[in-house]
Design a protein that fits this description.
single chain, mainly alpha, three-stranded antiparallel sheet, 22 helices, 6% strand, globular, disordered C terminus
Length: 500
């Protein structure tokens, strides 16, 4: 039997698979803590004092024209309530961009980690990639809390980001490949839901640990706990089968069956006729269908990253307490847990377009709310709607785009998309500063226009609802969905015809 039939026989999802999926999904919590850590650990104080000759010379206010030139030192109010890399290394006024640059360095590391670890995952396995990067991620996260200067801190942040990229790609693919096709959307979505849980967890830690070094240490600890799961999380049977390692895949599938109440079941896989040891990434350029899909997918991921992190990092634009606002921005993502039933009923493309448009309209309205009663509530609601919509879009592209590419190329494709999306992540801290330079509406107009563009370009790709997940490029070219055959014409053009 082939791998799809094997999942049906062994069980699409059982108690062991639930344990594996839950473990891999929980890895998104430390990833969320590290990704958004500098919202608090890199917070720039709104006001400081310029000290000249041991006395206060002038007040430094975080504005476009702020300058600390000529100051012997800079002091901060004792009732500030927190410390950060900005207060420790005086990253204010002319140097305030360095706090955002540290976020960009982390995203740069994630960009390189995603593409390199994506290839490593496809070549050497999902499991070995996931746990090796988790180990590096945790060690570098702990080390960053002891950094003695800004340069060493950003170096550690790059390493954390690099390893985080590997955790994200290998963990997500391993999670979705550990269950049958019917449950792959729910399994993949659990990863994104746990990331959302990590955001209010960060706000809670930041409230408890006001010193940035203590906060960084606390945020690194969950990764250490997850390393213990290496003893029971197996390799992806689908990946093993695609590499012509059927006996190992059978062992895993039989273990799934045993935990599902079928201890005497012995799955026997047929040999994969299309096994290849490696596929060059250049196939994405040579194959017309793959080329179109990777371009559209990469643009969608970039927009999702820029808008998502742009709203998240622009926490100061939301009225109210910074801890409560950040908790709300995290909790509002949790309704995305209900996405799988919607995707199974409505497909992937229509919900994706809808969420892009909704996020764009919310961002467009956000800066233009008139001075009315309860204006702060309206602004907060628009921010939450925009955040929820772009979170849903982000979750959908994870599921949708993982189904657009064959198993042999899936990690490379998702790694490439994640890599390119980090351009949006790296730009997001500086996009937020557009509000300082060109007025409050500027960043939101940028977010709105990009979200609408992503909705439009999504019309170029087919839906994947009901598709058998392809293992090879050849299978992708002969994709079948709900009685509609997509057959290859002229190496990559899709022709739609009803099956007889």
């Amino acid at each position: 039997m082939d791998i799809e039939e094997a999942y049906l026989v062994a069980g699409s999802i059982g108690s062991y698979q639930v344990l594996v999926v839950l473990t891999l999904a929980l890895a998104s919590i430390p990833a969320a803590l590290q990704t958004c850590l500098l919202v608090y650990a890199g917070e720039i104080p709104s006001q400081a004092n310029c000290i000249i000759n041991d006395s206060v010379s002038r007040s430094l206010v975080a504005t476009k024209h702020c300058t600390a030139a000529g100051c012997d030192s800079i002091s901060y109010s004792t009732d500030l309530g927190f410390t950060s890399i900005a207060t420790e290394w005086d990253l204010i006024c002319e140097k305030d961009y360095l706090s955002g640059a540290a976020i960009s360095v982390y995203m740069l590391g994630t960009m390189f980690g995603s593409i390199i670890c994506g290839w490593f995952s496809d070549t050497y396995g999902r499991r070995v990639t996931f746990y090796s990067t988790l180990l590096i991620f945790t060690a570098a996260a702990f080390a960053s809390s002891f950094a003695s200067d800004y340069s060493s801190f950003t170096a550690f942040r790059f390493i954390v980001g690099f390893a985080g990229g590997g955790i994200g790609i290998a963990g997500y693919v391993l999670c979705s490949e550990s269950v049958g096709s019917k449950w792959r959307a729910a399994a993949g979505n659990s990863v994104n839901v746990c990331f959302s849980i990590g955001l209010p967890a960060l706000a809670g830690l930041a409230y408890l640990y006001r010193d940035w070094r203590h906060l960084t240490l606390a945020a690194a600890f969950p990764g250490l706990v997850l390393l213990a799961s290496v003893w029971y999380v197996p390799e992806s049977p689908r990946w093993l089968s695609s590499r012509d390692r059927q006996p190992e895949a059978e062992v895993v599938l039989n273990r799934y069956a045993a935990w599902a109440g079928e201890p005497g079941l012995h799955v026997k896989l047929s040999k994969n006729k299309n096994t290849r040891t490696s596929i060059s990434p250049l196939i994405f350029l040579r194959h017309r269908t793959l080329r179109l899909r990777i371009v559209v997918a990469a643009f969608r991921w970039t927009v999702c990253a820029l808008v998502y992190y742009g709203i998240t990092l622009n926490i100061k634009s939301i009225p109210g307490d910074k801890y409560v606002s950040f908790i709300l921005l995290g909790l509002v993502e949790l309704p995305a847990v209900f996405l799988p039933p919607v995707l199974d009923r409505c497909g992937r493309r229509t919900p994706l377009i809808t969420t892009f448009v909704l996020s764009g309209l919310s961002c467009l309205a956000f800066p233009f709310v008139p001075n009315i009663v309860h204006r702060d509530i309206v602004i907060t609601c628009l921010a939450l709607i925009g955040k929820l919509a772009i979170t849903c879009a982000f979750n959908i592209v994870f599921i949708y785009d993982s189904e657009l590419f064959p198993t042999a190329l899936r990690s490379q494709a998702l790694g490439a998309c994640s890599t390119v999306s980090r351009v949006g992540s790296m730009v997001s801290p500086f996009a937020v500063t557009l509000g300082v330079w060109y007025g409050a509406p500027a960043p939101y107009l940028l977010f709105a226009s990009l979200a609408i563009a992503a909705a439009t370009i999504s019309l170029l790709l087919p839906d994947t609802l009901g598709c058998k997940i392809p293992d090879t490029v050849g299978e992708m070219d002969g994709d079948v969905r709900n009685g509609v055959a997509y057959s290859k014409v002229n190496e990559g053009e899709w022709d739609v015809g009803k099956l007889k």
